[in-house]
Amino acid sequence: MGKLGKKIRTLPESPGVYMFKDAGGRIIYVGKAASLRKRASSYIKPRGGENPRLTHLRSRIEDVDFIVTANEVEALILEANLIKRYKPDYNVVFRDDKSYPYMVVCVDDTYPRVIFARGKRRKSAVYYGPFAHAGAVRETIDTLRKVFPFRACRGREPGKNGGGPCLDYHIKLCSGPCIGAVSPADYGKIIAGVREFMEGRHDKILRELEALMREEAARQEYELAARTRDRLAALSRMLERQQAHSLKEGDQDLFAVHRSELDACVTVFYVRGGKILGKQDFFTELPEETGEAEILAAFLPQFYAQASKLPREVLLSHHVAEPERDLLEGWLRGKAGRKVTVAVPVRGKKRSLVEKVLENARHGLEVHLAKQASDLGWISRAVNGIREGLGLDQLPYRIECYDISNLGADDAVGSMVVYEGGIPARKDFRRFRIKGISGPNDVAMIEEVLNRRLAKLAAMAYTPGTGGEGEKKQHLNSFHKKPDLMVIDGGEAQLTAALRALHRWGFRDIGVAALAKKMEEIYLPGLKPTVYLPRDSEALHLLQRIRDEAHRYALDYHRSQRGKRTRRSALDDIPGIGPKRKRFLLRHYGSLARLAGASLEELQGLSFLDKRTAENLYRTFCSQSTDRSL
Q1: Where are any strands of DSSP class E within 333-409?
Q2: Is 26 in contact with 65 (CB distance < 8 Å)?
Q3: Could you give the 3-state DSSP secondary structure of residue 273?
């Protein structure tokens, strides 16, 4: 850091953007600062308890470059643009929103068009969106044309080469500006209606259409009234498909983020005039140890960099640091020409809606990862990447992963999940109740689980598919299949325990690795330092997915076992008392305390107890009462 430190100390005390570069001159991190020198200097010296991501970034920094800006707001905009351009390894980079479809009103035309568009934006046009997919834009345009008869011809001037009106004019989908059937002023009112509707002012338009329909009917112009009725029905159907919520009418963008270890999804709801007009998911691969607040702080400038219309409120699922929030609000205020509030609702209807967005983000990430996992090309690259990254002799077709879940020594359990060819083999998943370990000792528990698993493999008396009793044989077959790779959730201590178990049972040709959660470092036998697979590699994503599945499977079993234990009562150990009699007793007496006070004669008089069971019940509670009195 000698030369780098000297260079950083020469940076100006001005606002701007700094860019860290690696040994190859590639930009690996872009940041903004009120003082370039002060902010960049904070990366030179390590601090106790710092984010592991900073430690890893510092180890790769070889050079720094900078751009001075007039103020912090300008630095915020420049930072977002540079991140989009260079996609640095240690920044959160989202898919560019210019690839999403928009509905565009070309307001600079004499007779404005309403069109579908992607790509670079025109300053002279008004954009609505982004929409979830192209079909949603086209469906919206088709519905709006039934109500607002704007032209569909592509050129800046209306009409076609033949000179006459097109079919749309004859079927009342176009007002006919090409033949002078509508004046520019009247056509402008049609376009104003489109814009009002897209900006959420639905009630006004619906009231005007309903009043027009009644006037036409009163004048006995029934054909016109029927056409207005159809326009009104088309708009109503379109609004029914939009989900209403109970906030006061207003314009909000709502953002929620859900993350896994390596990926994140930011979901946006666009609310205009009290209606949810659209939803969009954005995905990114995460640098190490990136929290939800940091993801949102990186995402929002990228999202709003090219936005043409801004809401009055931006509601978030997680708190962004106050300096970042104030800077963002100031930038949005200047962009919108009015106040824009950025806030995290903590209660009430707004919080309920943000929770709904958060649920959508969770589902969005699950679907995204599921699609990724079903991609055979992705799976092939992942499995081959594991072989190369871990230096295995053969392709790891069968991967088994183990995890422990416990609270102290109570209800401690282990899990074994199996992936074959990169796909979960759920019929081979197994759970273990820890039997021989007292006290919290994850390392010893892992060793017990592996000893039990490998003992069955070593004792294989037949090959799968021959001999044995059907159901038992099918259950044991999971243990009788030899894995190519064993992955342990943990670090060096867990790896050592796994090696002891493998050596004890004589398996020296099974690959083994430990995957730690903190920085996703991989511990391998006889190899130091630890191995780090690239954060964006398919191999690491697959290993992390297998490890998380093992953790989930163990945790579910632990909760099940703990729940069974907490639901037990003194009645469970009394001969003759089963679930049904237990339920009848508790319903009759209301509590164990009242049941304990019952006399033998009273218990024998209950219709659902025989004489012997009543005596067993009385003796149990009588002895407990005697013990307490002593």
Answers
A1: 341-343, 398-407
A2: no
A3: coil
Encode pLDDT of 128-152 as tens digits.
Answer: 766 656 777 887 888 888 888 899 8
Any bridge partners for residue 275, and if so which? Answer: 244, 272
Specify the 3-state DSSP secondary structure of 138. helix
Return the bridge partners of 511, or none. 485
Contact (Cβ atoms closer than 8 angstroms) between residue 508 and residue 534: no
Q: Which residue has the tokens 């079993």?
A: 557
CA-based angle 477:479:481, to the nearest 5? Answer: 70
Q: Which of 108-117, 199-208, 243-252, 309-318 has the lowest mean pLDDT?
A: 243-252
Is 524 a residue whose pLDDT tops 90?
yes
Distance CA 198, CA 204 (A): 12
Instruction: Provide mean pLDDT across the span 240-265.
Output: 72
Both structure tokens of 443: 């390392």
439 φ/ψ sector (left φ>0, alpha ψ -120 to 50, else beta)? left
What are the residue ranges of helices labelled H in 418-465?
442-458
pLDDT at 187: 92
Asked if residue 350 lies in contact with residue 503, where contact means CB atoms within 8 angstroms, the answer is no
pLDDT at 79 over 50: yes
Token pair, residue 560, equals 């099940």
Question: What 3-state DSSP class applies to 262?
Answer: coil
Most confident of 306-320, 492-506, 521-535: 492-506
Residue type, 627: D
Mean of all residue pLDDT scores within the chain: 82
Question: How crowded is residue 407: how many other Cβ atoms within 10 Å of its Cβ?
Answer: 10
Structural tokens at position 157: 């001037």
Strands (E), 152-262: 252-259
- 3-class secondary structure for 491-543? CHHHHHHHHHHHHHCCCCCCEEEEECCCCCCEEECCEEEEECCCCCCHHHHHH
Beta pairing, strands 522-524 & 511-515:
antiparallel
Residues 6+ apart with CB under 8 A from 147: 193, 197, 209, 231, 232, 234, 235
pLDDT at 118 over 90: no
pTM over 0.85: no
Pairing label, strands 313-316, 252-259: parallel
Q: Which residue, chain included where needed, has tokens 């100390």?
A: 9
First to last CA, the chain: 74
**Local structure of 373: helix, strand or coil:** helix
Could you give the CA distance from residue 518 to residue 529 in angstroms, rounded to a whole number?
15
- pLDDT tens digits, 201-245: 777 778 888 888 888 888 888 888 888 888 788 777 766 555 444
Per the model's pLDDT, the better-predicted residue between 292 and 409 turns out to be: 292
523: left (phi over 0), alpha (psi -120 to 50) or beta: beta
Which residue is listed with tokens 């907490």?
A: 566
For residue 436 the two structure tokens come to 């021989």
Is 200:248 a contact under the CB 8 Å cutoff?
Answer: no
Q: What is the DSSP string of 275-286?
A: EEEEEEEEEEEP
Residue whose C-alpha is closest to residue 406's, from 447, 440, 452:
440
> How is residue 154 annotated by DSSP?
-
Query: Torsion over CA of 449, 452, 457 and 461, rounded to 10 degrees?
Result: -160
- Assess whether pLDDT exceeds 60 at residue 568: no
Q: Which two tokens stand for residue 192?
A: 């104003």
How far apart are the C-alpha atoms of 20 and 64, rounded to whole Å? 5
What helix, strand, coil percent values describe the chain, rounded to 5? Answer: 45, 20, 35
